[in-house]
Design goal:
The chain is α/β, with parallel strands linked by helices. It has a single domain, classed as NagB/RpiA/CoA transferase-like (Rossmann fold, 3-Layer(aba) Sandwich). The protein is about 25% helix and about 25% strand. The chain contains six helices and twelve strands. The strands form three sheets. A six-stranded parallel sheet has the order 1-12-7-4-2-3, sandwiched between helices. A hairpin with a 4-residue loop joins strand 5 and strand 6. The protein starts with a helix and ends with a strand. This is LUD domain-containing protein. It comes from Streptomyces griseicoloratus.
Length: about 210
């Protein structure tokens, strides 16, 4: 019996032989615009804010000094009593909250995550033209399950280093070997009659905090 690997090698070998005399592919011209937004930080930030809100995310601007108080206010406002904390989340971010913290070391079960009211994370990037925040499981973000199971996700964006205008600007800054989660607003779907339902396959509520200084 032929193994799967040797069968694959035979198929690929045939493809290579068939293409041996094929002309080289023409060079692709990549002179398209990488952004449709003026190269102005204030304009990019305003566009991100607008598009996040258009996707029904709550959007808030904060200074680093006020960040713990704002996160505490958001958690209290949503009645969150338990909060999942990913590894590497700055300790002072939750200093303004009285919620019970559940630190994730990779062993919180789906049931434990489901019983938590909220999760607070950072992000890898935010894309203004699409109103998207990108997570790549880096420090302060945690594994993907943390941001898919709790009903409330508070995501902090460092405007100075994490906001780009467009997808072509975002992709080169992401490590292709890391798992990425792209979030545009709270989780939502709709049926054939276009009745929108939120919280089906992710958080029902997304709050994005833009730290401006």
């Amino acid at each position: 019996m032929t193994s799967a690997s040797s069968a694959r090698d035979r198929v690929l070998g045939r493809v290579r032989r068939a293409l041996a005399d094929a002309p080289e592919a023409p060079e692709v011209t990549r002179d398209y615009l990488v952004s449709h937004t003026p190269d102005d930080p204030a304009t990019v930030l305003d566009l991100l804010h607008e598009n996040l809100a258009d996707y029904r995310a709550g959007v808030h601007r904060s200074t680093r000094q006020h960040l713990p108080a704002l996160i505490g206010e958001l958690l209290t406002g949503h009645g969150a009593r338990t909060v999942v904390v990913p590894p590497g989340l700055p300790g002072d971010w939750l200093a303004g909250s009285d919620a019970r913290l559940r630190h994730d070391d990779g062993h919180l079960t789906p049931a434990e995550l489901d019983s938590a009211d909220a999760v607070v994370t950072g992000c890898a990037l935010a894309v203004a033209e699409t109103g998207t925040v990108v997570l790549d499981a880096g420090p302060g973000q945690g594994r993907r399950a943390l941001t898919l199971i709790p009903d409330l996700h508070i995501c902090v964006v460092d405007v100075a280093g994490q906001v780009v205008a467009s997808l072509p600007q975002a992709l080169p800054r992401l490590d292709p070997t890391r798992p990425t989660t792209w979030i545009s607003g709270p989780s939502a779907t709709s049926d054939i009659e276009l009745d929108r339902v939120e919280g089906v396959h992710g958080p029902r509520t997304l709050e994005v905090v833009l730290v401006v200084e």
